[in-house]
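Final report, Chapter 2: Outcomes

The project's central promise was a pipeline that accepts a single protein chain and returns its three-dimensional structure in a standardized token representation, suitable for archiving and comparison. That pipeline is now operational. To close this chapter, we reproduce one record exactly as it appears in the project archive, with the input sequence first and the structure output second.
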Amino acid sequence: MGDFLVNDFPRYFVLFVWILVNLFLFGYFCYVFESASSWFYLRIILKRGLCLARGSAACLNFNCMLILIPVCRNLISFIRGSGRGVRRTVRRLLDKNITFHKIIAWAIVFFSAIHTGSHFWNYERICYVWDEVPGMRCIPTSAQPVQSPGPLPINVMWTTWAGFTGHIILVALFLMVTSSIEIIRRSYFEVFWYTHHLFVVFYACLIIHGFQGLLQGQTNPDVHDPEKCYNAFLQGDTCIPAPSQNMSCQLQTATFKAGGAQTWKWVVGPLGLYLFERLIRFYRSQQRVVVTKVVQHPSKTIEIQMQKRGFFAEAGQYVFIQVPEVSALEWHPFTLTSSPEEKYFSVHIRVVGDWTEALAKRLGVGNEEFQQSYDLPTMNIDGPFGTASEDIFHFRVGVCIGAGIGITPFASILKSIWYQLHMSAGGEFVPKLKKVYVYWICPDTQAFEWFADLLKTLEEQMIESGMADFLDYNIYLTRGWDQNLAKNIMLHEDDSRDVITGLQQKTHFGRPAWGNVFESMAAAHRGEDIGVFFCGPKVLSGALHHECNRCTDLQNGTRFYYNKENF
């Protein structure tokens, strides 16, 4: 139970509250439209289609309001960076913003299906109900969306404002959701990027969707009781009740009024917040960025060093990069690999895909000719934005786990640690962090070079400062070795440094036994809060999350807090 409370309870509690709110809205509006006398005449026509449509509409309003908030990156970064006033639990929930955004999106799909299906039924009813409902001609004209028999449902659907905008909303939603599926997003990021901007069309049509006021409720059921009057109407051959029936039906005509568009009231606040967010991004993206250096690393990785006036980032944060000469609209997220103490900021980019290949070509990667700084392309930067990795400095024990290029967030952190140790040696600053474990699972021997150089520098600094036990790093090579490399490793097995990386710690082959790794850390740091930070594939994330829960023991105070990078 303790493991659940540490890593899972806060997010499940938020999800539980969110589900309760959706259930309440759906149930409440279904009840109102199913029982209120104001909607009696419309219920005669539409039956259950009315309550299902209005219940799902309320949930759609709620979720379309919420879905914009998790993607307000500046707001989230501001909240999580507000200092000690923001609890660790809240910061870790903020790191799940993209996950929550996806959950809300699927909820919108679900309620859209109910809403659409209900209204398909409703359009069918309002056209064919004349032959099915007794006394249809006795229902007040204002309560009837279609006031004469004959038209086809599809014609009515496309000639009403609600039907026309509803279909545009469905198309925009379908394209946004399908292009967001992971396999498409990773393989065709440009498709995902462009189609996601259909949210402008989605919200524009959503706001005006109900302005026509197609469904109208009765405004005077206190003087014209709809149920009694309708029953009185049915007892005569005409729509005029007999004198023995309810006389108020003769004297008081039912009056009707549309409820008016409600969606804009739900979404205007988040839309204004998101518009302000985009204005901030636009302003920052227009500030001049100078590319000072481009470094080509092995394994198709390039490092770009830049400078920008007023730019400051914490270790572990990320930025969005746009290169107008490559694409006028595309922005891509990259983790900063420089530390706050350096005079420049940098990113490491793996050259995979059309955009990164075009960027590498424009930067002159692979050319033998030297390029001057003024020959390099203009780059726009939006950010920095906060991530889970920032919180490593709030723990006494930190565990950094990266798979492949997923090690990049921890380059910035390790550099910052190196500078902080310099400051602490001079008595200027005493960091809370006392022990760091680094695990890098890498498939390619060539990919070691740039990160291994950083580890080597940090390793030497630790030894010189008498803090050799501060950093415990482990590199695992999962594939990429051949028979010649294996022989070379065996010949140099007794050397003081690793034959592949040049580090004192020897490279491991295969994959870590995570159960043993976490058990040993739990035993070495009994009673401590241990921050585990991971960047890599979902399958490995699940295994690490499980180990954090398994090795958490609230009885002796050992708690593993699991954090995963999300972009």
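Archive annotation: The mean pLDDT is 78.
This record, like all others produced under the grant, will remain available to the consortium after the project formally closes.
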